[in-house]
């Protein structure tokens, strides 16, 4: 049985891959904290909603003229808000703030650990179902 073919495991693997890539980007930011004109980078945030929509392009179809139209538009209910960056750029043009990058790395590490624990729990649940035959 290949767990990689199950939907939940695909999603968790994609999230873990994203977290690994983000860790690399954050590490590069920290490594270049003293490089003139270096601009900090980050990946576009990962959301399970977006990951699911990549695999499932389903749209509701009206089968009867008296059915109500959907209330969600093409963008869904989620709206991105512009986040104000409270930090300033250094005189040399570098905008890397070490404290901010370290907080992001810490959060990234906790997220990775959470997904790893969820993965382990799902595998344990499958093993339990196989053992009990049900």
TrEMBL record:
GO cellular component, one term: bacterial-type flagellum basal body, rod
Residue ranges annotated for the Flagellar basal body rod protein N-terminal domain, each copy included: 21-39
Biological processes per GO annotation: bacterial-type flagellum-dependent cell motility
InterPro entries the record matches: Flag_bb_rod_N, FlgB
Short name of one Pfam family: Flg_bb_rod
Major subcellular location class: other
Domain of life: Bacteria
Region (Disordered): 57-94
Extent of Basic and acidic residues compositional bias: 78-87
Location in the cell: Bacterial flagellum basal body
Keywords on record: Bacterial flagellum, Cell projection, Cilium, Flagellum
Subunit: The basal body constitutes a major portion of the flagellar organelle and consists of a number of rings mounted on a central rod.
Annotated family: Belongs to the flagella basal body rod proteins family.
Function: Structural component of flagellum, the bacterial motility apparatus. Part of the rod structure of flagellar basal body.
Protein name: Flagellar basal body rod protein FlgB
Organism: Azospirillum thiophilum
């Amino acid at each position: 049985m290949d767990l990689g073919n199950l939907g939940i495991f695909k999603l968790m693997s994609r999230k873990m891959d994203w977290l690994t890539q983000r860790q690399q980007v954050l590490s590069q930011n920290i490594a270049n904290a003293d490089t003139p004109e270096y601009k900090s980078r980050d990946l576009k945030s990962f959301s399970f909603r977006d990951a699911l929509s990549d695999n499932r392009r389903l749209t509701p179809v009206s089968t009867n003229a008296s059915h109500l139209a959907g209330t969600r538009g093409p963008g869904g209910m989620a709206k991105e808000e512009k986040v104000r960056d409270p930090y300033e750029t250094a005189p040399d043009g570098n905008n890397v703030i070490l404290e901010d990058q370290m907080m992001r790395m810490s959060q990234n590490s906790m997220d990775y650990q959470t997904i790893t624990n969820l993965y382990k729990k799902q595998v344990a649940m499958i093993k339990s179902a196989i053992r009990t035959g049900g």
